[in-house]
Amino acid sequence: MKQLPFFSVTRFFAIVAKEFIQMRRDRMTFGMMIGIPLMQLILFGFAINSDPKHLPAAILLADRGSQGRTLMQAAKNSAYFDLSQEFETTAEAEAALLHGRTQFVLNIPENFSRKLLRGEKPALLMEADATDPAATGNAVAALRALLNNALQNDLKGPLAFLKGSPGPIELIVHPHYNPEGVTQYNIVPGLMGVVLTLTMVIITGLAITRETESGTMETLLSMPTRPFEVLIGKIIPYIFVGYVQVSLILLAARFIFNVPMVGSIPLLLACALIFIAANLAVGITFSTIARNQRQAMQMAMFFFLPSLLLSGFMFPFRGMPHWAQTLGEILPLTHFLRVVRGILLKGSDFGDLIPELWPISLFLVLVLTGGGLRYRKTLD
Amino acid sequence: MPTELAIDVQGMTKRFGALVAVDGVDLQVKRGEICGFLGPNGSGKTTFIRMLCGLLRADGGSGHCLGYNVITESELIKFEVGYLTQRFSFYEDLTIQENLEFVARMYGIPGRQAAVRECLSRLGLVDRRIQLAGKLSGGWKQRLALAACLLHQPKLLLLDEPTAGVDPKARRDFWNEIHSLAAQGLTFLIATHYMDEAERCHRLAFISKGKLLATGSSDQVLARANLTTWSVRGPQLLALSNDLTGLPGIEQVVAFGNTLHVSSSQQAALERAIAPFRKPPYIWQPIESGLEDVFIRLMDSSHTVEA
Ligand SMILES: Nc1ncnc2c1ncn2[C@@H]1O[C@H](COP(=O)(O)OP(=O)(O)O)[C@@H](O)[C@H]1O
Ligand SMILES: [Mg+2]
């Protein structure tokens, strides 16, 4: 029996070419392409603060004395930190910080207890991932208070003089990646992901419902074609729209907000491809489900709001309740935010980003498959 | 091996909820034939055509279209069928040429550019090829749509009310083109509700309320109906119509312009019934029943069967 090939490049190209032309003639696409990034840059150009708790922290304990242990215990009991890891070497600690496995490393140096008891005011080093300054600031302040309280019991009798007001220890905070704690450094790169999530989902969300409403779906369906040729063919042209937005925001970040760009921009652009495709896939899948354009818009909003709220863009990710974090981990935006901040502020390389890239890729594949299954090959 | 029949389906049925839009329709159309598909609005013509080309899933029925199984092989049927939709459904935001190129690519037509160029010149649209399809007038849209349907050289054309809203001259040109294409071996199924177009078809299929009521050539349909018709002229035809309607022996009274057509399948009874009215100022004349008389009769009887 003759069969229609599973995927025809010619037909796929027919759809791509048609969509490109239609996109070029569609004012709304242009509006979304330029208007949404501009609006968001203005809206989110200022900081959003909050007071997160239970931030993942690690300890590097080189001190053998009892005061070091006391401090560690105090940090463990604090609501601000989840002190779950202990490291042996500085390299280990650095790696954990870079990969986002921990947000703080409390470094209690060798001979800390001895120096403390001698009244030498030993230094305590706090290394912080400051890419999200709202999350760091409060935690550092909390640590300061906590340290002083913790040592109250130990500093008695002859040592009472150490309680004096500059404090018995010197806390040195070493903020990594965003040393000045500039909120825009966090927000502006994040905006790239937010804008892409909004526009990409809306643009393709309308793609199939528009054909249904204008009646052209009847022509399209009367021609021999496979769902994936249509779905992927409709996605491709909008990847370019996505890149226009990425470029706009990167330019604004560089020249208006002076965001440092430590890592590789080509790497960022490559990662953006997966993220853009994932969001376009969400839109096209919504489009196969929605009965009309209004429903498609509502679905786009239904996807956008959780992305905005749970991805770590609005609120520091670590500060959210556990269930919200779990939900957040599913969303591509969550991972893309880490990718953008990682590349721009930390200089992450491809290897560092793999843990963020595979969840986006998996999401893309699953959503597109869902769209392929939902695509109606008939009018009923 | 190509079969004699381009369309050979039995019991085609489609339901929309409680409504049976197409109800057990059988249809055979030979290759090279022009089959007129007649029926009033909402009778299920569009629905039937959509089932033939795989746009709607049939709820019942079986058979073949161009030798392919009409239920399971609709993807292959699509390669060899051209479907002209009732409402213009090409891309209005694409130019004439872009629409044709899109269609050519979708069917993987070899020598695409040459095919599109030839199609444009046959249409006489070479100069307007960069005009948006949405800006064309109704008649031109129809010509573009027909040309686009023919681009992949289909063997069967399904035309859904192709001449609705087209002026008489364009309609005549259109039918001439249909006949010359049929002479080359193309098969046509043409939905219409213009009776004069029915006369130009080799074969007719009449559908009402989803049911096929009559098939055959127009002579066959007329012969089978065995209808006797008298025409009557004169003043106050409306009053006369009211007097005649419902008399035993009279099955149908229809106004045609300045005349009434009075029909029945029982010739003797009809003549008895009209005898009292055959006096001046009325002028009575026996005429040959036309397709229109027959179809109105068929539709009415399908109503009474239901009621
Ligand atoms: N998609 C649909 N959903 C529900 N009812 C429909 C649908 N399409 C057609 N119908 C109904 O089926 C009947 C036949 O319609 P259609 O095939 O369009 O008739 P025609 O083409 O002869 O005018 C009509 O009553 C119409 O309202
Ligand atoms: Mg119709």
How does this structure look, described?
- In chain A, 63% of the residues lie in helices and 9% in strands.
- Chain A has helices at residues 9-25, 27-43, 66-77, 90-98, 112-117, 133-150, 183-214, 216-222, 227-255, 265-289, 293-310, 322-330, 332-346, 350-374; strands at 55-61, 81-87, 104-108, 123-129, 170-176.
- In chain A, helix 6 links the parallel strand 4 and strand 5.
- Chain A folds into 2 domains: 55-176, abc type-2 transporter like fold (3-Layer(aba) Sandwich); 184-375, no CATH class.
- A 5-stranded mixed β-sheet of chain A has the order 2-1-3-4-5, with helices on both faces.
- Chain B is α/β, with parallel strands linked by helices and 307 residues long.
- Chain B folds into 2 domains: 5-222, Rossmann fold (3-Layer(aba) Sandwich); 228-288, Alpha-Beta Plaits, CATH 3.30.70.
- Chain B contains 11 helices and 14 strands.
- Chain B has helices at 45-52, 74-80, 96-106, 112-123, 138-150, 168-183, 195-198, 218-225, 237-244, 267-274, 291-306, and strands at 5-16, 19-30, 34-38, 60-65, 68-69, 81-84, 156-160, 187-192, 203-208, 211-216, 228-233, 252-256, 259-264, 283-287.
- In chain B, 42% of the residues are buried.
- The model of chain B has no long low-confidence stretch (mean pLDDT 87).
- Chain A binds chain B through residues 1-2, 4, 8, 10-11, 13-14, 17-18, 21-22, 25-26, 214-219, 221-225, 377-380, and chain B through 16, 50, 53-57, 73, 75-76, 78-79, 81, 83, 85, 87-94, 98, 101-103, 105-108.
- The complex binds adenosine-5'-diphosphate and magnesium ion (MG).
- Residues 16, 19, 21, 39, 41-47 of chain B line the site of adenosine-5'-diphosphate (ADP).
- Residues 45-46, 86, 160 of chain B line the site of magnesium ion.
